[in-house]
Amino acid sequence: MEVTGEAPAVHGYSMPAEWEPHSQTWMGWPERPDNWRDNALHAQLVFTKVATAISKFEPVTVCASSAQWENARSQLPEHVRVLEMSMNDSWFRDIGPTFVVRKNGSNHGNLEQHIAGIDWNFNGWGGVDDGCYQDWSLDLLVARKIIGMEKLPRFPHFMILEGGSIHVDGDGTCLTTEECLLNKNRNPNLTKEQIEDQLKAYLGVQKVIWLPYGLYGDDDTNGHIDNMCCFVRPGVVLLSWTDDEKDPQFKRSMEALSILSNTRDANGRRLEIIKLHVPGPLYMTDEEAAGVVQDCNAKPRLPGTRLAASYVNFYIANGGIITPQFGDQKWDDEAVRVLSQAFPNHEVRNTSVQFINIYKLHMQDM
């Protein structure tokens, strides 16, 4: 069912926090050789490891193209569902739907379903001139397909927005960055106030906290919040951090710290800030760059490029934390320690995701 003319909040829906119960996790399967080196061989091994780790806590569905379905099926555990779906790339957190839920007892609107999906507009993270690749026509259909398979109400939205650019506490507060949402390559005809109004109406939040920038080097997404800062629970956030004052990330982290320290959430709480040190810095090697097909259909992957490596881009499953590891032993171990303390009731599992940000889409089951 397509719902037009009315926002989800009108029907009592709101976006839940990532730590609330899921019925399953949706993932895409990587393959494009102009983004993933060596025909995505290494990425597929990592995606398999991530899907397997998540499946210890909840069901997982992986979507693969017709050309890759058999390959994905052969690599993934049998209990992980593999569906055929066309896509331009595998970033499901960004191109998939934002699931919203209606709390028990809510009787707003005239929709009976407990879960619905928001189908945002998408332009390849910046359009023809600034985006990651030239053709995103298949990505535009992913959210609609998933919502249709789940037989949920669909709220289409004209605004260009990726799921990784927003993060909520499930209690009325949303985190985002000006670097991304106010970028001229997203919604140049909308003001900050207008974008904020849309976030409130569609996510069911009352307060939007704007950080100036995302993680240094996260040029592909123009500074998504999911690499920079996230909620641990209402009133508590994790912030990407570095102690190195010469690192360009230091200024970004300091500016974010200042804003977060002087901001209250939707319920008037002062925020507790937990610092999560970034690894590295890490850079793309000559070997890694040589493994990518540089064919002008996607953004060039050049040797020496600083990689947007962050432990904040972990995933919360039902009772589990899936955290990346980057081969920087000191900060890899520190990340596991910090996350274990931040989530004492979750099992923290590392995935040795070196130099790859894995974006997931989760479906909530309240």
UniProtKB/TrEMBL annotation:
GO biological process, one term: putrescine biosynthetic process
Molecular function (Gene Ontology), one example: agmatine deiminase activity
Record key words, sorted: Hydrolase
Pfam families, A to Z: PAD_porph
Source species, domain of life: Eukaryota
Transmembrane segments: none
NCBIfam families: agmatine_aguA
Name assigned to this protein: EMB1873 protein
